[in-house]
Every structure is written in structure tokens, then in C-alpha cells.
Amino acid sequence: MTKTFDWDHFAERHKPEWTAWLKANHGKPVTEAEYIEAYRAQRSADTRPNKAVRYATAKLRSAYRNLQEDFGFFV
Fold first, then answer.
1. What does DSSP assign to residue 28?
2. I need a labelling partner for 68 at 20 to 30 A (CA). Which of 31, 46, 60, 74 fits?
3. pLDDT beyond 90 at 25
4. What is the pLDDT at residue 29?
5. Measured between alpha carbons, how far is 14 from 18 in angstroms, rounded to an integer?
6. Positive or negative torsion for Cα 5, 33, 24, 12
7. In contact, 74 and 26? CB cutoff 8 Å
8. How far, in Å, CA of 73 to CA of 64, rounded?
């Protein structure tokens, strides 16, 4: 059984660009590599101190897997 994804809560906690990307692609068959590449691309444009640190690949894989398994994204 999939959980309900709270878009409003997500939008409060993440950049508008990332929220827009996830909304546009959550129903498409996005691979793990495409998800990681998209996250790093939008994250690298962030020039604020301590905010441009990229997540470790293992953490991004876990986030992808959780979105897929818990919320039914990327199928």
C-alpha cells in the first residue's frame, strides 16, 4: 500500500526548482541514475555557503528507493 505524498510539505522544505522537477517527473519511468543526475544538477547551481554540498550517492539512492516504494513514484 502506498502512502500519500504531501506536496505542500515538500514544497516548504525544498527549492521550487526541485519541487517542479519532481511534480513533472513523478509519474514517468525515471531511473535511479536520472534522478541522481537531476538532483545534482539543480543542487550545483546553489551558490549559498554550506548549501551546495551534494548528498552522498548512497543517500540519493535511498531517497529514490523511498519515493518509489513508499509513494509509487517513477513507475
1. S
2. 46
3. yes
4. 96
5. 7
6. positive
7. yes
8. 9
Q: Extract the C-alpha cell encoding 31.
A: 531511473
More confident residue, 75 or 43: 75
Closest CA to 26 of 35, 36, 39: 35
Burial zone of 25 (CB within 10 Å; 0-12 exposed, 13-18 middle, 19+ buried) = middle
The predicted pLDDT at position 57 comes to 83
Provide the grid cell at 13.
522544505
Give the Cα separation of 37 and 31 in Å (integer): 10
Cell of 19: 519541487
Within 8 A by CB and 6+ apart from 66, the residues are none
What percentage of the chain has pLDDT greater than the value 90? 59
14 pLDDT band (50/70/90 cuts)? Answer: confident
Give CA–CA dist 75/29, Å, rounded: 5
